[in-house]
Structures are given as C-alpha cells and as structure tokens.
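#lab-general

N.A. 3:47 PM
ok so I finally got the sequence cleaned up, no stray characters, all 401 residues accounted for. can someone with queue access submit it? mine expired

B.Y. 3:52 PM
send it over

N.A. 3:53 PM
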Amino acid sequence: MNIILPSPGESVTEAEIAEWHKKDGEFVEKDEVVLEVETDKAALEIVADCSGVLKIIEEEGAVVAVGTLLGTITEGEASNTPVKFQEVSTTQEEVIADERFNDFESPAVAVLAQTHGVDVKSVSGTGKDGRVTKQDIQKFIDNKPVQVAPVSTPKIEKEIESVFEEVNFRSETPKKTPRIRKKIAQRLKEVQNTAAILTTFNEVDVTEIMALRSKYKDEFKEKHGVGLGFMSLFTKACVEALKQFPDVNSEWRGDEIVYKNYSDIGIAVGTDKGLVVPVVKNAQTMSLSSIEKEIRRLALKARDGKLGIDDMTGGTFTITNGGVFGSMLSTPILNSPQTAILGMHNIVKRAMVVNDEIKVRPVMYLALSYDHRVIDGSEAVQFLVSIKNSIEDPARLLLEL
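B.Y. 4:20 PM
back already:
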C-alpha cells in the first residue's frame, strides 16, 4: 500500500508532515492512525488501509505537495512466534573462567578477582611458575587503599539541577511554529493591513435568557438530546440581525461588494494548535435545537483535532466567545474576507437602573468589530442593538423581529 498525501480541500496544494505516529519498520494495524499532517487550515490524520510493516519516505517537518508518496506499508500479519533462546547451563566460575585474564589462573582466582575488581596482571603470584593464587588476590585486596565514595548521590545531583534551573530564570526554549499558526498570523496581519477595522460596544442584560434556559433546559434536552446553551441563542439573534442589515453579511471582493442571501455563522474555537473557526452552514434555515446540535458536533471535532477543510470553509459572519476564558472586554479581529465579527464576554452581576430603580443584573459586554469600508457606524451600532434586543427579549427570536 502506498501512503499518498490526499487533497484536503479546495485551494490547498501542500501540507507539512507534523508527526509520524509509527516508526520506520514498525508493524501497523489496519485503520490505525499512521501520521498527522498540517495544512494552512487544519491538522489531518491519515490511517492505514491495511496491516503491515511501515516504510517512511518523507520525514517529519517536510512540506510536500498533494499526491506525494509519504511512505509504504508492506502487507502481512504480525509475527506471534515466540523467540527461542538456547538453554545454557553453566556455573559462575565456568563463565568467568572463560573470560579470565590469562590461562594460568584457576576459575576460583578469576571469580575472586572479578568480584573485587582486581586486575590479576597487577598481582604478584607466589604459586607454581608464578601463578596467582587465591591468597595472593586476598592479600592484594587487604592492602588495597580505601577509596572514599563521592558524597554526591543521584538524588542530591537532581536537587542541585532543580535549584540551578530555578536560579537560571533567563533560559529559553525554542519550539517550531506549527504551519497552522503561521497561516493564522499571516491572515490576521493581512486583514489588519487591508480592512478599516472599527469596534463598537454595548451591554446586554441576560436575565431573560438565563430564566428561559433554567425553565426549559430539562425538557429541551429530553426532547432534542442536547442542552440549550448561549451560543445557539446568540447565533439565532445574529441571523435575524443579518436579515435586517445585509451590509454586515457581505464581502468586499475586488471592485464589488458581494451580498450573501444565506447566513453561514463561524464559531471561533481555541485548540491546542491554534484558533479554528468551524462554520454552522445555512443557519438561517435551522431551529435552535439544530443549531445547538451542529455547534456541539463541530466543537467535539475541534477538541479531537478532527475538523476537516469542509467544516471550516466559507462563513459570512463570525462569533467569538472570550467570556469562557474570563474576558471582560475585547476588540476581535475580522475573519477575512468577512466584514464583521461579534465578540461575547463573561457574565458579571452589575448594578443597573431598571424602571428608575437600581437592580443587580447579570450583564455581558458585547463587541462588534467591522470593516468601515463597507459598514457605516450607524449601521454597525443598530446591528448590535438588534442583537441586544433579541437577547433581552427572547420572544423576538420566535417572532423573527
């Protein structure tokens, strides 16, 4: 079997070999993950189509084109035949005698000398023909100077190294930048250089949607098999706002502004390998439960590193929730070529004036970053107010107001 780099998706022509999960010459089972490759958009796993012995051709770190031969698997079964060892019955004296220092010493002399680390050649023999006897070896041992063992022990040496590491606080650890991280950096910098990014803010009282979730969460989960979260409600609110303000759902393309008549909502997710944005496609046609199921499906794939290119292709508007990490406020960067992105933040109890009375309410700060080349400030503010109104009065979502 040839291991070929498959085409991960449109516009992706090459990938970097991130890690071989098996060593060269190692046996692999069918459907076992053999290696992982990274593209500009995602990390992909390649599995074995058959069982056999692996031969690696392209090493880790190599950047290869789609269709490149990465390695081969020679079909076969794993060998379960136990290794047979020749049984040897011999005494310690016979073994050491075979390796004794010269042919004149007896096995007993060789054993005693090797046990105490004595070089027989350095001992004066008193036996016949100058042979070294056991008494000669013992006398040499008795007269040997006592060597004082060093004070340092492995434990002490380890503690010394630990202390040294703490003192050496200016150490550096270089780490190769993953391909996906390089692409993220490139795209973020490009959008800063090309778009006129501006951010507008608002605050939203989430009392009503918290009460809604509390009242119906059990019944919702029992019927739909998934919990009712904030992300589906905010996604639905964004879809309704995008219908009212089409400029926010557009794209600057060359000399044209392209308006989308559909809402593909990207949900930014932080992973160990960097930020990824899986897309809930055709969200304008989906119910709350459908949106919740799709968000959960994509989130699980992101967590397991199994997002494909198709999962992240497209997107007309993006939502990022820094609140799950404790962020109070931020200014999100656009997800090019989109013209706007919504930033959600943590929910904190704050003092608010409600009907001329000071009340303690759960409040979230919202941020909308947008491309001022396409979207006017008044339109961006009204878009964010529309989301605020839908969240503070969830009935508007049902009535599509």
